[in-house]
Every structure is written in C-alpha cells, then in structure tokens.
Amino acid sequence: MELSDLIGQKLVFGIPGTTLTPEIVEHFRELRAGGLILYRRNFVSPSQVRALITDLEEALGRRLLVLVDHEGGRVIMFREGVTVFPDNLAVGTTGQVEYARRQGEIEAKELRRLGVDVNLGPVLDVLTEAYSPNIGIRSYGQDPQMVAAMGAARLAAMQAGGLSACAKHFPGKGHAPVDAHLGLPVITSTWQEMAAVHLPPFVAAIRAGVDLIMSSHPYYPNLDPGQLQIATFSRRLIDECLRRELGFGGVISSDDLEMGAIAAVCPIGLAGVLATRAGHDLLLICHTLSAQREVQQALLAAYEKRELSWAELEASVARLAALRAKRQIRFAPGEPVPEADGAELAATISRQAVRVLQDQASLLPLGTRHQSLAVIFPRFAELADRIMIEREMVAGKEFLEEEFAQAARHPEVLLVSMEPTADDLQTAEQLAARVELTILCCYDAHLFPTNKALLDRVQATARQLIVVLLRDPYDAAFLRPEVTCLTAFGWRVCQLRALLAAICGGAGS
Fold first, then answer.
1. How far is CA 263 from CA 182, 260, 272, 292, in A?
2. Before 46, cis peptide (omega within 30)?
3. How many CA atoms lie within 13 A of 66 on its CB side?
4. pTM for the whole thing?
5. What is the spatial distance between Cα 453 and Cα 260, in angstroms, rounded to a whole number?
6. Among residues 270, 103, 94, 259, which one has the least CA distance to residue 173?
C-alpha cells in the first residue's frame, strides 16, 4: 500500500445526509478513508441506510468499516430495525447480568442485518458520588465489579453474534465534571483510585476478548501531567498502560476529534497527529469534511517527515485488517426488523428498574384518587433532527393521553419546550395551582437553568406533586421533602410505560 492508503485505513468519517453524493464519494476516494460512522442524520429507514452503505462501497470498489453508537437508552441512532433498550443504568439497577447478555445477543443480530461492523459500546465508565453531566445513565452504576460483569457479558454476546464491540471510555470518565463534547474535563484521580474503581471494567473487557477500546478526552494531571497530555494524546495512558501494561492487543480508537475538549487544546490536524503518536489505531472525525481533510493532511505530513513511526503505522493497519476479517459479508441474512423478544426484554428491564426516590405523602400508586390531574411533559419532537426520538415521543401529547387512558385516567397534558420558555413557565405554574395533582416530567434541571426554573415554580405552586426524573437522577437534590419522586433512569418509551405503571398502578403496556 502507498502511505496515503495506510493512513486512510486509520480514518473513520461521518457524512451529512441520507443519500450518497458525488462529493462524498470523491472525498472518501481522495482521502482513502477506511471507516464510516453513522448518525441519526443518516437514517430514514433500514432499507435506506443499507442502500447508503452499499452505494458508497460500490462507488469506491472496496469494503468500509461501518460503525455506529448504539449504547441503548438515549444514545441510539436508528429508529427502526432495532430494539430500543433502556439506558445502561436501568440495566445495572436490575442487578441482572443475564439481561445485559441477552441485550448483546439481540443487538448483534439487529445491527449486523443493517450492515454494522462495530457497535461503539458498551460504556464501561463507573459512576461515583460526583455529578456526571455526560455519562450519568449511560453507565451501569457505581460498583466497578457490577459494571465489569454487565459490560463483559454484553460485549461477549455481541461478538459471539458477529458484531464487534468497543469498550469506552478508557481509562474511565464516569466522574468527569464537564461534558467532553462541550469542554475539557479535568479529572484529578490518582493511579491508585483509577486502579481500584475505574480500570477494572476495562480489564474485564480485555479478558472477555473485546475487539476495540475507545479512549476519551479528559485531562488526568495525576496520571500524566505533561502539557497537552489529555488522555487522547497521552502515550503513558494509551500505549504504555492500555497496550503494554494491560496487554490489550486489539484496536484502540479515539473518541470524536471534533469535540469541544479537543478544540480547547489544539487544532484538529495536530490532534490527529498527537492521538496517533499516543497509540491510537482508529481516529474518529465525525462531522465536518474540512476537519477530516485537515487530519489526513496533517498525518501525511507527519509520516513523510518521519515524525510518526512507520512501524507503528504498519502494526495499526495489521490490527485493523484483522478486525475487518472478522466479517466476510456486509449484511447478515434476514429482514432488518427488531428481534421478536427484544421489546419484552426492554420492558422487563424498565419495570424492574423503576425506583421511588421519595414518597412522603404516600401518593403511589394513584389508584382512583385525585379527580383533577395534569401532566407537564417535555416536547421531545424538538430534538428529532439531532437525536433519535421514537415515533410515540414525537406524538407526545397523544401518546401520554393514550397511555393514561389505559388506567382510566384522563389528565390535562401540557407540553413544554425542552428548555422551557417564559410562557411555558407561567402556563405550567397556573396549571399546577389549578389541579389537585400535578405530574411534572423533568428532563434535566442540572444542565438547563430553565428546567430548574420550571421545577422550582411548579414545586412552589402545585397542591400535590409527583416529579418524574427523565434523565439523570441528580435532580432529586432539588426536590422538597414533601414531593413524590420516581425514575426509571431514562426516557425511552419502554421506560415511560414502566413509570406510568408505577404511578397509576398498572397503566402502560
């Protein structure tokens, strides 16, 4: 292979849109990119996404490595053809490792029928008592051994079904105080703390034979204090610790190099060079064609000047070739539809994950009490262009009315913006004061000040109040003692139905 071909094997690109364009074909052909990562923006239907992959590969005359973020819960890219499982924290809350294993089996069948080679999951970050604005419900929980067991069971099942798994985010960022998509997290953990809490799940993943491990972008000053030594750029963490000390022989992938944490440190071209020098085999540049070109050109110049090791490049390409060789066909046989037992498993996990965090007023379950009832709920349809929103959630009000009707309840439903407006706050406050019982579904009061304002104003005016925490459970800290609160650790339809069943005493399906 020529140098540009070798470099291209290391590059994974995201693309805009749902159909192939001549510009995209020429971009992949010129830069020799070896990988394609799919997002919500690329998906209309199973047949469409299969055609997108096929058309690109046929135009290039070669196979690509196709990747997708399919963690479960809030991080799912495909609306159809897959089971929508609850978030990892819901699975972890059940304590049933078998559920994680069965989820992995189902994911392998579904994603391989859609042509996916690599699932960028499971998340193996361990939560602590610290606020975690990005990981949260994406983690299995706070117990390192439980996280290790759940993650290893799921990834082993995925790989037994022909789908490569990717454990992330090495060396562990469940306690990162900042979302790396937005800025640079600084994690002050020592090697002793990391070895006791955050590394065990990755050790278990390596023992289970995981195909890929992904790093991420926090800075760990007590692990590698050098300038520009965020984890992505740290040879101490990637090559020395992960590759040599832990003995991982598979593919090491960066996280997306277009995240805010990278932009806060250096230009993206330099980021690609530094991540390669640290020991990464795959570089993810997920959104912008110009950024993808900048990384490729920076790598080409660095190798030509012998600033990067050619021997390490050849070793990376060999590992990537071994990964590609695991699948001889693009699409596994069968129609790209959800597995028959997937929905029931998702529902079972969701029901067992429901937790009542406080109920001093003994409101749950409602039974036949409270003649006047209101539900305040976020308008998830606003997010549909950016993240996968299930069709039921796009409908929003109609979905809630139908679900409550199954319990012979007919609440007044108010949809508010994901970041509530001044009018939303006033209307919600007036509604809560008027009805006997209010159910407020809170999206995230820690991250979004207007959601905190909504929570505060409804708490101040509601005659009786049930708060449903839809995202991370940290918002429980903002509740008054007399307010009833429950969560299922996420907001997918399977989780909402489980929550309504807990509230109404049998509602949901």
1. 9, 5, 12, 14
2. no
3. 24
4. 0.96
5. 27
6. 259
The token pair that represents 309 in the structure block? 């090791």
Do the domain assignments include residue 438? yes
Residue that the structure tokens 């499971």 belong to: 122
Residues 276 and 374 in one domain: no
Residue 430 maps to a domain: yes
| Closest C-alpha to 508, from 451, 464, 468, 462 | 468
Strand 282-285, strand 251-256: pairing: parallel
Decide: helix, strand or coil at residue 101: helix
Q: Does one domain contain both 370 and 245? A: no
CATH classification of the domain holding 149: 3.20.20.300
Tokens of 470: 């839809």
Q: What is the mean pLDDT of residues 170-196?
A: 93
User: Which pair of structure tokens corresponds to residue 502?
Assistant: 């807990």
301 SS3 class: helix
Judgement on whether residues 300 and 363 belong to the same structural domain of the protein: no
Q: Give the tokens for residue 241.
A: 């610790």
Instruction: Catalogue the active-site residues.
Output: 181, 255
For residues 41 and 98, give the distance between their C-alpha atoms in angstroms, rounded to a whole number. 33
Q: At what angle do helices 46-60 and 22-31 cross, to 10 degrees?
A: 50
pLDDT digits 0-9 by tens, 11-37: 999 999 999 999 999 999 999 999 999
- Report the number of distinct structural domains present in the chain: 2
Q: Which domain holds residue 295?
A: 70-281+288-307
Mean pLDDT score, 447-464: 97
Q: Between the CA of residue 303 and those of 3, 79, 105, 415, what are the distances in Å? A: 8, 41, 41, 55
Q: What is the pLDDT of residue 241?
A: 98
What SS3 class is residue 454? Answer: helix
What does the DSSP assignment read for 149-203?
HHHHHHHHHHHHTT-EEEEEEET--TT-SS-TTTS--B----HHHIIIIISHHHH
